């Protein structure tokens, strides 16, 4: 009885909400076109078990730019990255709400092939993690997985090209059969970048790639990223604010699971909108 | 606060504090512990050395008398019978060597294939609720005495197999009767006996593979199964090998269960009548032969020597195996530059 009296109201509500949502989506779509958005994150919420790790995260990553994630330890930067290639799926207790689109496609759509997504969205980890194999095999392995019929010569070509791209070729070309574990930390990290490049991704995500490297190796990787951004969309997590200032176009500042500020890197560093951001980025000058 | 200040100010001229680095308290156990541990280690080492020397020493006569025939000819069961009365008998351990080799390799094959599946499932795929009980079952399997395995094999596996012996075997295979207690029964029972040894080591070595390798593979868009087979298994290979060696060592020494289910006739299985008959041929292993003839036979010098010959071969096999395993593991480590001297 009560319910039948009330029925018209929820329907009207629903319609209004739908319209509002439609409106919002239109605005986002327009903005996406304007910004050449590749990754569109809408109202992302992530939990590990009952622990909410990210909430209300909405932003977009434009193509062929470097977007930097900054923020104190534990604020959810890595978690956000792992949403984009669905590596979070491997973590027990992970659940999320909201939507992430890559090139207009919802990456959490059940029809999405996760392995293809991960090929498109490459990832380089904080600690260099070359496989315990030769330098050549480190790159060839994944290439062969995605293209089983590739010929030997073609494969060698891809390996060389990836190493050249990653600025590592000159240092290793004499002995590609050497174990990758015998390389220095900086070389290993560039090998990991080469490995990610070799499967022809669209996006490359790097989670504190320079955390265990010396200043010279760090500079080489920064240079490399500035070269690569012509062909790839790059997202980098970094604790090094000077680095974010040097290389990024957009900056996302996370704090305790929220995206506090997002926008043009220079603007965020020089004229932050929020006091928390200002406090945090002061380190970029200090 | 103020007194600290005064002290701090005054300490400029104060003499440096005297430091005494000699220990005040010495527990009595400390004087005992080191020598005691040394003694334990030396004693155990000495016992192993003495056993090895003893076995090889007593194996010398048979090898010096009839070295080649002993390992290359096929007369064992009749030789044993004759040795009670005749002074000069030629023993041929070939069927026993064949029995041990075939049962061991067969069981190794089965347990490695089955065990790898188990290990991958346990280490990577099983939900906790299933993993724990499964691991417990496998641990349990390792602790079951071999007679029990033999008994279950005798009452389950052997009757099952005897129904599968080709019907025309009696007419075709003229040298030996084919029954359920056979090479195949031995392999099946032995497989389950060595399975837990392999699985336990394999699970550990799969788990020991750094997570970052697996994550690296997955993040490159290599699917879960291929990541396991192409990255995790090769990385775990030395450990898997160690597990296989442990399983072999366990298998070559197994006597009781095989005596019960494998036919216990010193016979070199042959495929000359057709492969379908091969699995149903009876075998006797070296360890079984020692157990079965050991008791009274030891009073006859000839038999005594022959059994020590078998023991020496078993011992040699396990020494060579463990040495080979060590060498392969360390070679592997060097090849991968896992001696991470540079990164330290
Ligand atoms: N596998 C996991 N299981 C449960 N909770 C996790 C897991 N990984 C991260 N968390 C939690 O999620 C929150 C965000 O972690 P995350 O690793 O994303 O932080 P971060 O910003 O990358 O930090 P850092 O700069 O230290 O790398 C933390 O509170 C952390 O405890
Ligand atoms: Mg992180």
Write a structural description:
The complex is a heterodimer of chains A (286) and B (344). Chain A has 286 residues and is α/β, with parallel strands linked by helices. Chain A has a single domain, classed as 3-Layer(aba) Sandwich (Rossmann fold). Chain A is built from twelve helices and ten strands. In chain A, helix 5 packs parallel to helix 8 (185-198). Chain A has helices spanning 2-6, 8-35, 77-84, 114-120, 135-146, 152-165, 169-172, 185-198, 215-228, 241-247, 265-270, 275-285, and strands spanning 37-48, 51-62, 66-70, 94-102, 105-106, 121-124, 203-207, 233-237, 250-255, 258-264. Chain B has one domain (68-340): MetI-like (MetI-like fold). Chain B has helices spanning 2-10, 28-72, 77-83, 94-125, 128-143, 146-162, 169-172, 183-207, 211-219, 224-252, 256-261, 286-297, 301-335. In chain B, 38% of the residues are buried. Mean pLDDT of chain B is 85; it is low at 1-6 and 339-344. The A-B interface holds A 85, 87, 90, 115-120, 122-123, 125, 127, 129-133, 141-142, 145-146, 179, 181-182, 184-185, 192, 195-196, 199 and B 210, 212-213, 215-223, 226, 230-231, 234-235, 335-338, 340, 342-343. The complex binds adenosine-5'-triphosphate and magnesium ion. The site of adenosine-5'-triphosphate has 11 residues of chain A, from helix 3.
Give the tally of β-strands of chain A.
10
Number of domains of chain A: 1
What is the CATH domain class of chain B? Mainly Alpha
CATH architecture of chain A: 3-Layer(aba) Sandwich
User: What overall form of chain A do the CA principal axes indicate?
Assistant: globular
Q: Could you give the topology of this structure?
A:
The complex is a heterodimer of chains A (286) and B (344).
Chain A: H1 2-6, H2 8-35, E1 37-48, E2 51-62, E3 66-70, H3 77-84, E4 94-102, E5 105-106, H4 114-120, E6 121-124, H5 135-146, H6 152-165, H7 169-172, H8 185-198, E7 203-207, H9 215-228, E8 233-237, H10 241-247, E9 250-255, E10 258-264, H11 265-270, H12 275-285
Chain B: H1 2-10, H2 28-72, H3 77-83, H4 94-125, H5 128-143, H6 146-162, H7 169-172, H8 183-207, H9 211-219, H10 224-252, H11 256-261, H12 286-297, H13 301-335
The complex binds adenosine-5'-triphosphate and magnesium ion (MG).
């Amino acid at each position: 009885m009560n319910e039948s009296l009330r029925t018209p109201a929820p329907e009207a509500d629903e319609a209004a909400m739908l319209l509002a949502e439609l409106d919002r989506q239109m605005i986002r779509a327009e903005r996406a076109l304007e910004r050449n958005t590749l990754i569109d994150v809408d109202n992302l919420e992530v939990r590990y078990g009952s622990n909410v790790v990210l909430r209300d995260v909405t932003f977009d990553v434009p193509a062929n730019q470097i977007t930097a994630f900054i923020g104190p330890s534990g604020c959810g930067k890595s978690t956000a990255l792992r949403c984009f290639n669905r590596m979070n799926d491997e973590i027990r207790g992970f659940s999320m709400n909201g939507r992430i689109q890559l090139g207009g496609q919802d990456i959490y759509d059940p029809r999405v092939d996760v392995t293809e997504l991960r090929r498109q969205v490459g990832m380089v980890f904080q600690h260099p993690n070359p496989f315990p194999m030769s330098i050549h095999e480190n790159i060839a392995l994944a290439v062969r997985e995605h293209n089983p019929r590739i010929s030997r010569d073609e494969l060698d070509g891809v390996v060389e090209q990836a190493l050249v791209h990653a600025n590592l070729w000159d240092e290793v070309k004499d002995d590609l059969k050497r174990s990758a574990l015998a390389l220095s930390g900086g070389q290993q990290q560039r090998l990991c970048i080469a490995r990610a490049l070799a499967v022809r991704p669209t996006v490359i995500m790097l989670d504190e790639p320079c955390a265990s490297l010396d200043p010279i190796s760090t500079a080489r990787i920064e240079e490399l990223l500035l070269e690569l951004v012509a062909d790839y969309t790059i997202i980098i997590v970094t604790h090094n604010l000077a680095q974010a200032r040097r290389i990024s176009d957009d900056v996302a500042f996370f704090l305790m699971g929220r995206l506090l500020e997002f926008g043009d890197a220079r603007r965020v560093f020089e004229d932050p909108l929020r006091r928390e951001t200002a406090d945090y980025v002061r380190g970029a000058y200090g | 606060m103020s007194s600290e200040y005064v002290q701090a100010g005054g300490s400029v001229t104060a003499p440096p504090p005297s430091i005494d680095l000699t220990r005040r308290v010495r527990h009595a156990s400390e004087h005992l512990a080191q020598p005691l541990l040394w003694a334990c280690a030396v004693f155990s080492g000495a016992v192993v050395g003495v056993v090895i020397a003893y076995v090889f020493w007593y194996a010398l006569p048979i090898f010096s008398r009839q070295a080649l025939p002993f390992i290359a000819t096929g007369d064992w069961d009749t030789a044993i019978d004759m040795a009670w009365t005749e002074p000069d008998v030629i023993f041929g351990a070939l069927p026993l060597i064949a029995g041990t080799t075939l049962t061991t390799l067969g069981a190794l094959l089965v347990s490695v294939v089955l065990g790898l599946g188990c290990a991958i499932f346990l280490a990577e795929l099983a939900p906790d609720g299933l993993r724990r009980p499964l691991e417990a079952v496998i641990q349990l399997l390792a602790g079951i005495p071999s007679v029990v395995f033999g008994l279950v094999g005798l009452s389950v596996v052997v009757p099952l197999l005897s129904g599968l012996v080709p019907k025309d075997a009696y007419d075709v295979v003229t040298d030996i009767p084919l029954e359920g207690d056979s090479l195949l029964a031995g392999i099946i029972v032995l497989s389950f006996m060595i399975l837990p040894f392999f699985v336990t080591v394999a699970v550990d070595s799969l788990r020991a593979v750094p997570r970052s390798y697996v994550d690296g593979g997955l993040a490159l868009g290599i699917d879960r199964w291929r990541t396991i087979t192409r990255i995790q298994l090769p990385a775990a290979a030395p450990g898997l090998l160690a597990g296989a060696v442990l399983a072999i060592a366990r298998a070559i020494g197994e006597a009781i269960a095989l005596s019960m289910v494998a036919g216990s006739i010193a016979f070199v299985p042959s495929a000359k009548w057709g492969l379908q008959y091969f699995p149903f041929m009876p075998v006797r292993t070296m360890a079984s032969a020692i157990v079965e003839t050991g008791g009274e036979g030891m009073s006859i010098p000839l038999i005594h020597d022959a059994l020590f010959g078998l023991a020496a071969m078993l011992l040699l096999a396990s020494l060579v195996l463990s040495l080979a395993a060590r060498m392969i593991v360390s070679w592997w480590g060097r090849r991968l530059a896992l001696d991470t001297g540079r990164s330290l």
